[in-house]
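Lab channel / #folding
Pinned by the channel admin:
"Please post every new chain as: sequence first, then the structure tokens as a reply. Keep commentary short and put observations after the output so the thread stays searchable."

First post following the new format, from NK:
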Amino acid sequence: MGVIVENKRNLYAIGVISLLLSAILTSISQVYYSNRVQGVHPFLFTGISFFLTTVFFQLITSKQKVEPCWKEARSSLWKLNGASILAFMGFYFALKYIEPAIVSSLEMGLGPLFALLLAIQQKKRVINAQWGIAIGIFVASLLLIGAIFTGKSAVQTWDQSSILGVGASILCGLGAVLCTVYSKQLSQLGWTSSMILSKRFYGIILLSFIATYDVIFTYLLENIGWILLMTVIGVLIPMYLLQKGIQYCEVFLVMMSLCFIPVFTFFFQLFDTRLQWSTITLMGVLLLLLFGILSVVLEQRARSVS
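Reply from TO:
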């Protein structure tokens, strides 16, 4: 019995460390990508990186003896590809024009707000505490957006591209919620994580190559090094570590770890000389962290009651 308990503790520790490393690597990659993308097309990375990611997970899927239900899954798969376009292409586009901590915060912070709107659209019951969190998230998001357009963010300047960046960040938050919904539908149909990850990025790959077909060969050779590096440490490894965390830890801890990514991103971006210290950004990030944690706690309590 003691050996079993010790093994469970060890697996739990592995899960916690995996979640922490996943959050840290994700934050580092966001800051590094934001710096490198200033001189290249924002979708040069998404096309190559997600093509390699798709190939990687397709190789894993080919070794699994699970037959996908194509007919039942077709609709969810199409919608997941569309949602992934919003989530990932929106995110990487926004990183070119807005400081990483704000992009990361809006993506993570607006998730609960869009989830609430989705619940209302589906005529589900919404408690007062959820409304309070939604209002808090909205106010904190306005604070961050205000920092951008008053020149008080870490970038300190803004132009018309910044407006597109904010719009992309908002769409990114919406896409992240929809990705969760459609991924869950596929999981309920018996699709494994690897199967989903091998099929969800087709839309991103297609649109990225269409957007960069005229510059991809010009920029590819001189940028392939950091693109491959970011694909490994910014996409593949964090996804693998997150999956390990999900496997060994409770959902509550997984969601909490995701809430801290914008905080890590804020402090890692201090090493980027292109960006300056922004007190308003820090305030907005911490506010969204607070409301994000409250949202996770509230959902955990709801699960316990049900």
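NK: Residues 2-36 form the longest helix (35 residues).
TO: also worth noting, The two ends are 31 Å apart (CA to CA).
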